[in-house]
Amino acid sequence: MTAVRPARLATPTRARALLLALALLLAPFLAALPATPAHAADKTVWIPERWRTTGEVAWADNRKAESENFVVLWGEHAGTTPTTAPAQYRFDPAQVLRELEDAYAFFVDEMRFTPETGLLAQHKIIVIITTTWSSNPGLDAWATGGSTDGRVGVINLAPGATQPGSWGLVHELAHVMQNYTFLGRSGVGFTHPSAGTFWEASAEFMAMQALPGVAAGDLTRFVRTENLPYSSSRHHYGAWMLLQTIKERRGLAFVNRIWNEARSTEHPLETYRRIAGLTQDQLNAEIAQYAMRNVTYDYANKADIQPHLDRLYPFLVPQSVVQLEAVDAAQNHFAVPDGIAPGAFGYTKIRVVPSTPGALVRVHLKGHVDPAAGSGWSYGFVGVTNGVPRYGPVTQGTDTEASFQTRAGEQVYLVVAGTPSAVPKHGFLDGYPENHRYPFELRLEGALPSGHEPGHSRGTAPGGGRWHPNGGGWVDARATVAPTAYVGPNAAVYGRATVSGNARIEGLAWVNDGGTVSGSAVVRDSALIQGGVSIGGTAVVGGDAEPSGTCTSGTYLMFDPDRRCDGGPGETDVNRPHGRFPSAELAITGATTPPAPTPTPTATPTPTATPRPTPTRTATPRPTSTPAPTTPTTPTVPGRTCTASYTVTSTWTGGFVASVRVTAGAQPIEGWTVTVDLPSGSVVHSWSTQVLTQRPLTLGPAAWNSRLAAGSGVDVGFQGTGGSAATTVTCTAR
């Protein structure tokens, strides 16, 4: 990911700063010379010899630059002076080294993530500028971080990912630092397949410590899939909130301990449980408390994350609160929809409406127990007044009762987490049907679930959308949805998507801008239909699937990048079917007592919006924050002009990355706006620019690149879905 960089990231030590200044001062001269022998205390450059001999990374001494802790290698396309290379290969080695050293100083000296000992103290971290190698065109990753040969850290960055203020640079360095927690040591480190989500969530968390307010991970994914298992690969870039909870509960140093004291056989939650000295029940209670905080996203850094929440697609936060199904409405008996029941350490947020102001609310909650799943539930009530939450106690078990004394004027929520008796250890890409869910039913006294209370009204649909008359789900004003199609109360249709015929959108499924669902197709559970994808006929897409192409038959229940629309049956679901409990089994005995009041935290003010984040492109594009819904007026100034050139730098099925070069005319300009007319799809990430509108795509300057000198230019870029061929590209100066 990349984003606009604040003025200062961290303060290096004096010695480190002096060494860095010298290294950068000499970089243009040293880059053209063979590396000089290192002093005894200096870090050495260690590069696998096979890289040069096999052409895997055919580096040369005149295409190399160094600083105290890093060595940057680039390919033939960028030449020996990459600052003047063609636009698609252009980057500044000195700037890359400067920002890497800043981030390194933060992680080592400020955050103290892992000690600067062992292999970290021996060798400089290797940085490869991808897409610049004529000898190996396959070296084209956008941004990755890791290690090689069990010895040295490696970062891969495309030129576009090295732009000033690169979030991706900091994120990938975080991955390298994670590697150094176990490099050169056996039996330690998060190397178990179940740790994948924790790696990405931690890298986002670490970048957020270094660059507070700049970005907040992939909140679109996370907010929409809070019900999925915590370790789901569908929301790994947004799952940092659990780490923030641990930081606020036990301190930042404890987060570092989790990484440095992990065992290679452990799931990260097993490591946390062991180091914190918790029982499984105590861990489960902490998970429930973390889930309860996410009614309002109640964190110490809320001022930093709220602007990013505010920019999400308008249906996401409101629909993160799930509407229950009625089992026997006359008995106040309801159930979570089976397809979106919480997974392991996932959770369901339910708004409940008290029957009278200040009513005592009682609940009897019973789960459908599956011994193979180690079924368990942990839940609690949250009262919210003017955005400020107060929390009831956590209740745990498979068949329990609880109560909550409400206050007049507050909104009330019940948050239910799936908390098994042991930590499941699924692989990173083990999807929806391979993970157990924890369905539950409940009866209420003194309140009803939102959507079932007398005279219920959902009010005005957010974001200028509408509630679909057949099902009550959210539909964008730009979408085309037939009255015969069904959009359920928790489902959504965004942007210029189309749903026709007798198609059904159920559960927490949503159809993104440019997606099409037709015929008798069903999209359900937590499935996502991206732009350019067409689902029709009798196809069923459910679970956490995100198919590509056109599907007219078959069942697809899992995200599987290797599966195409083959018309085959769905993947086998480990969850066994169940019936409904008789209402009598959920009778409320009244044996519970209201909890003691809890302290009311101070409300956190919401600041103005910060510059937009620019996440790393991955093999599977993912939707993120929605742009601002209105376009600021951009007055033109006589004599001031600009031009814009548009280049598609990479493509894949359903998506692409493009760069735009904005160049000022004969006079300096104070600002610019670029309009790109694209045939379909939408922008899901951007860097060095603000997305002002999606159709047509309108780009504006970031905080740092509004002013351009006469004849000078700036490169910006974005990742989009749908077609990449632009019919027109225009630039307006002011």
Key features of this structure:
734 residues; 6-stranded antiparallel β-sheet; 4 domains; UDP N-Acetylglucosamine Acyltransferase, domain 1; alpha/beta; 18% helix; Jelly Rolls; 5-stranded mixed β-sheet
Describe this structure in words.
By secondary structure, this protein is of the alpha/beta class. It has twelve helices and 41 strands. It is globular. The model is unreliable at 1-40 and 593-635 (pLDDT under 50).
How do the strands and helices of this protein lay out in sequence?
Elements: E1 2-3, H1 14-30, H2 49-54, E2 64-66, E3 70-73, H3 93-110, E4 125-129, E5 143-148, E6 152-157, H4 167-179, H5 196-210, H6 219-224, H7 241-250, H8 252-260, H9 268-276, H10 280-293, H11 302-310, H12 316-319, E7 325-328, E8 333-335, E9 347-354, E10 360-367, E11 377-385, E12 388-391, E13 395-397, E14 399-405, E15 411-418, E16 440-445, E17 447-449, E18 466-467, E19 474-475, E20 480-481, E21 486-487, E22 492-493, E23 498-499, E24 504-505, E25 510-511, E26 516-517, E27 522-523, E28 528-529, E29 534-535, E30 540-541, E31 550-551, E32 555-556, E33 613-614, E34 642-652, E35 655-664, E36 672-676, E37 683-687, E38 689-693, E39 697-701, E40 713-721, E41 729-733
Helix pairs in contact: 1-3, 3-4, 4-5, 7-8
